[in-house]
Amino acid sequence: MDDVDSSVVLGQLIRAERKRQKLTQEQLAALAGVGVRFVRELESGKDSCRIGLAFMVLQTLGLSVSVTGRGIS
Fold first, then answer.
1. Which of 7, 35, 57, 62 gives 20 to 30 Å between its CA and that of 49?
2. What is the set of domains in the chain, with CATH numbers?
3. Whether residue 66 has pLDDT greater than 60
4. Does pLDDT of 48 surpass 90?
């Protein structure tokens, strides 16, 4: 499991998984119900407050997010 501590790292993980699944950005956008521009910006690590759309892309790729921290097990 990779630690995601920035939007850049998240974007890199999304891009790698998209390519592993042999999807284009256009195909991923269509499957996730988001715009191609959003996928491009997400993969490039652009900070975005559109977290709901980011979760749609993650879900489409079969990725999940876990949150851990001090005192959280």
1. 62
2. 7-61 (1.10.260.40)
3. yes
4. no
